[in-house]
Amino acid sequence: MLPQHLKQIRVLLLNDQENLDRTLFRLQQDFELQFRLGPSLQGRRVIVHTNYPLDGQQFDRNRFRVLAWSYPTGREDDSDKFCSLEIKMAGSYQYYFGYAGIERSGGGYMVVDPVLCVGADDQVLPLDGITIQTYLSKCLGHLDDWPDRLRVAKESGYNMVHFTPLQTLGESRSCYSLADQLTFSPEFSPEGHSYDWEDVGALVEKLKAEWNMLCITDVVYNHTAANSVWIEEHPECGYNMVNSPHLRPAWVLDRAIWHLTTRVAEGRYEPQGLPADITNESHLNAIRNVLWANVYPEIKLWEFYQVKVDSAVEQFRILLQNGTKPDHSKTGGNKGLKIIQDPHYHRYGNTVDMDSALETFVPHSSSPQAIEECCAWLKQKLNELNQEQHHVVHQHQEQAANCIVGNVVYERLAEHGPKLGPVTRKHPLVTRYFTFPYQDMTLEQEMQLLDQPDKTCHFLAHNGWVMSDDPLRNFAEPGSNVYLRRELICWGDSVKLRYGSGPEDCPYLWAHMQKYTEITAKYFHGVRLDNCHSTPLHVAEFMLDVARRVCPKLYVVAELFTGSEELDNIFVTKLGITSLIREAMSAGDSHEEGRLVYRYGGEPVGAFVQPSLRPLKPSIAHAMFLDVTHDNECPIQLRSALDSLPSSAIVSMACCATGSTRGYDELVPHQISVVKEERFYPKWNPSAAPTSTGEVGLQTGIIPGKLALNRLHQELAAQGFIQVFVDQVDADIVAITRHCPSTHQSVVTVSRTAFSNPKTHQYDAEVPPMLIPGKVEEVVLEARTVERHAGSYKKDDNYINGMPEYTVEIKEHIPLAESAVVSQPGVASKDGSEFVQKITFQKFTPGSVFAFRLSLDPKAQKLVGVLRYYLSQFSPKYKRGSVVEENPPEALQKPLSQLMSKLTLVDLNILLFRCNSEEQEDSGGCYNIPGWEMLKYAGLQGLISVLSDIRTNNDLGHPVCDNLRQGDWLIDYVSNRLIHKEGPLAQVGQWLVSMFNYLKNIPRYLIPCYFDAILVSTYTTALDATYKLMSSFIQNGSSFVHHLAMGSVQMCGVGRFPALPPISAQIDDVPYRISPITGQKEQCCVSLAAGLPHFSEGIFRCWGRDTFIALRGLMLITGRHIEARNIILAFAGTLRHGLIPNLLGEGRCARYNCRDAVWWWLQCIQDYVTHVHHGHEILRCHVTRMYPTDDSKPCKPGEVEQPLYDVIQEALQRHLEGISFRERDAGPKIDMHMRDEGFAVVTKVDPATGFVTGGNRFNCGTWMDKMGESERARNKGMPATPRDGAAVEIVGLCKSAVRWVVDLHAKGLFPYEGVKVHRDGEEVFISYSQWNQQLQQSFEPGFWVSGLPKDPHEKHPDLVHKKDIYKDSCGASSPWCDYQLRPNFTIAMVVAPELFTVDRAWKALEVAEKKLLGPLGMKTLDPDDMVYCGIYDNALDNDNYNLAKGFNYHQGPEWLWPVGYFLRAKLYFAKKLGEETYAKTVTLVKNVLSQHYTHLERSPWKGLPELTNENGQYCSFSCETQAWSLATVLEVLYDL
Q1: What is the CA radius of gyration of the chain?
Q2: Which tens digit of pLDDT belongs to each residue from 1096-1155?
Q3: Are 1507 and 1456 in contact (CB under 8 A)?
Q4: Catalytic residue numbers?
Q5: Alpha carbon separation from 358 to 331, 336, 339, 377, 636 (Å, rounded)
Q6: How many CB atoms lie within 10 A of CB 1263?
Q7: How confident is the model at residue 1450 (pLDDT cuts 50, 70, 90)?
Q8: Which residues are CB-contacts of 1051 (< 8 A; sequence separation ≥ 6)?
């Protein structure tokens, strides 16, 4: 078992309703496959099934098992849980998944590659190192001679042999028409011997052990030879007239065409212009005329599809006369005549569905006249229907005529066709579609046989293929008219086999073919699925399962002609095809040939290093790229003999399996026909003369060149040269680079193709020179195809001989100086950090190949090795190619993790984050990629967000990669912003500087991948260091928890200017620094930004409300307790008028214009006391007051101090007394939009209810604080949502605070029992316990909207438009605002759940879920409200009062932070309602949160936005990442 860091893990994300049956996922043995839940499935109880067997079990395609879920964090967190498979067996495996009530919600397949081994010691043969050669078995002679003939493959460098079938062939002698699938052909045994499969197996094993060669052979499942004895005994195994009567009309046509053939051959149609020797267009027209005039009228095919009208009408008449009524259970009362096709296809065998006739033709009475009228209508209709059938058959006959003529054109007239000559019985007009195993008789006599099943069962349909047909459809089954329309390109020597849907449909055939498969799999290492695209999928699945049981490492190849990659994938995934055959001959020019190399394998040169754990990505099928296949035309005929070598070289450089067919390397100048060829292959003799026909050797054809190329191909695969670059040097020259990403060696092959014969085509004399980046170590080979004097080609009668007139001049492994193909290379030059050699060609003629090995220049090679050495501390995958440095720079002498462990979370904020405005405060800014965009962060996250997309797709053309290749600006930016910092951060900067010093001096094309490797290593080390500084909840949390926790690092930082006012010097653990501006010692407490990028620096960074809504999630839950304490105390010091500032402005520029911030502050103190060990000690902490009285000037730190509990008491006392003041500096100086009345701040406690109430219609004192700005729309100075009166969340927060101080007082932790206030001129003591009870009693009567007509608590029943909700406020100046549905009541539910009756709370939450819950956020207003608008556009200025200048900020757009409170409220009350409700709620919560997880993962800001437009649409005016959005979602996970 591999150690975890080296193990390759692929992750497949499951998404609801995603069926990936047509997607190819390839895996290797020893991989782990993990299934994880996509957003659409999180929260559901998903069950994953697979048919991948348990260890020790046999694979059964139809036996599925359930996979168990793993929970890495120990908690049931859907973002991280997975179920996995340890992949150990080759083959095709299926998975599917479902959940409650839905067994299959999606699924797909995975294909596991076999591990192939050669040699007596089982060395692994990589799939990309395969070099295969095909042999037509019948040309090998006796088995004793095979080693001498197969040795040609060995000596030419091949490591795999493909044999066409070795079974007894049919009478046509086609390699693929087998008479007996089970016997080893007797033709391979000399007289007196009888070799069998055991002998073949012995030879195959000898080749594997001694020659390091594997052997595969074909399996042919689609057809058998027409003369197979077993098909005569078991005609049910084919398509005959008994089991497939739908073919009877096609058989009749086929016989008629045969009789036409005999008459044409006898010259009987010459008077009609149709001679036996068809040579021109007029003869073709004569064929059509004869078909229409003589053949079609005689056989009357339409009769097979028609009704006998008179009989049907008579039957109908009798039914009417008997008063028969239609059976409505069959007709459903619907009119419309139905004709039933005769299943036996007799002439006029179709019948009328009499129920449909009786339903359709109803007499108006039972009189004979009415009945006759109905019968006449029926007769008329039946005649029409017969006529329609006649027309359909007419169209079939037209197509049949076209196909017959097309066939004749190809076989007799076409230049590239076989030119069969005159029509004879041996060479009929067209190939027969059916067997006819009887003596000649007339057509009329043959027609009479149709009624004799013992005869017609032997009329068997031939196989073939149909141009552009659907490969998933069986063209011989009912519903297809291929045979009738003559669309089959027919193989007249083979009978198509009829398997049915399973073994029970044709037991003999399935058993026979199973045995055939078992024999093949027992003796061979692999199979080629012949005619795979027309083999029924279920048959091939069954047979391959059988084969893999016999040979688990079975190598499966196929050639598909579906015309579509998606259709290819169906076959590849279901059958587990290892390699798909691809052919270089499909390329029309060298450019296309080079493109195929790039397409079929490898990654780009300089590709990024991928992590061991990564998503499972769809891939294309592994290719077996052949220069020519054995059943295709000869390249020498289509191109030229000179092209054989360069095209072979192009193929050999492909990063996939490659190969050829025997004869190509010997320059056989014609196709070696799989049907007609009967000569033998020459044997191997190393010293065979060029003119020898019976032997070949190293002087034959291009064999020496092919040997060198095959060796090179195998070496590149074995040594990990997995990167490919294809360069089209000119129209005929292709340069292909294979590169090893660990050693950075390359091999470059330059091939000059000769698609046209140089004797007839003018090639350029000048060959462009090449600039080679690096040092040429050696010439691997240089080879030219040249003419020689050895006579010209003459086809031998006994042996398959090639052209003696060409040979290959070849040199291997020579210094560049000894090359005859290139002149002395140009002086090695340095271009920046590039080491370049110029290569000029001299004798690079068409048909030449030049390959050389290239390494980086020695200095660069060493620097890359050193880089890899330092990177190997992060992953062992860098060990190969690494070089230890003798005198390492000081910065690199300690592991990075050790340096990182000294960083604080403030340091990590600088290292990882900081948006542009934060960085500008330090006189910097985020890096701007020219021609693209600015990075989101100055820290590492800015680049990591971009690089993660680039890396996954190896997008080396991305502007970031261009920038890195062009210069060091970005590299320097990353390190320079750190080295000027203090302490450990500068050390991390120095570490990067040292790494980058190596990086800058390696070839520029490698810089993106190594820059990424350095950054990823630094980033992941920084993340590890971050989590170690956080709470155990975070450390042990899921990826989702980790992502959210990083929001704490993102938002919490220390800027150039202190954002918080100083706290008391008596407080311990307060951080200090020397001010970068004044040079004096100053406090540098962490502050919390409200959101990025808009609220990140200066006076707009810190907001009281935002800080304390986010503080529990981002600071308390993450374990940042001291920093949270400091923020609480700093804000406490700014208390004035009994309020906490909204905009902090460092305290000196604070605005006290919000009614809710003080209550959020109090809630945070409560959370601190509850959450932190000895948290109550904060209550005694000293607070240095900036404003000891409402009107005092700002005091100096330490001038006035008091314990925090006094400040809390003051806040509560001031509210009970009532707060009323006018903001200082009221007017445009502090708010350019507000009207004068808005600057009056009033808030108090209503003595009747205990509710905190306040505000007026000209200001907005809660979080929904949009002030109108448009003069044009006349909303300037008018708040969109004043929410004056008692806002529901403030009442909830107040209740929480009062309940808490009551509890604190009882425990002796808070010295005050209540407050003394002046009421009506008297001093009154109000106890907190009394206030607490009053709130409890007043809340539901004041806020619950029952919708009942006579609700005694309802003051405005006319304003109720939603029932079973809680009001948004109570006592608003515009009473209808109280009744608007908004998400704010859910906040009160979380902080003061005791205020709510459980069933009422649940009803209100269900309304909120239905009406307000969006994909990421909560609608801020009921979509049924007349002023609802879900699209926020702050730039829009028009006449619309409700929209202009973003007036609808809180009137519909979906804000994220309330979702946290909604979900927490749901969880709280669901628990009260029992297990079932709670389980459903957990499902909902996980499902909602999955959207946030997905957004976080994909967001380049790695955050959650402030808000979205309706239905989760992106809003460009929103902060991209908002503190309270991250915090409240993290709180939900904490509650879960």
Answers
A1: 43
A2: 888 889 999 999 999 999 999 999 999 999 999 999 999 999 999 999 888 788 999 999
A3: yes
A4: 530, 533, 631
A5: 10, 10, 13, 12, 71
A6: 26
A7: very high
A8: 1088, 1089, 1091, 1092, 1110, 1114, 1521, 1523, 1526
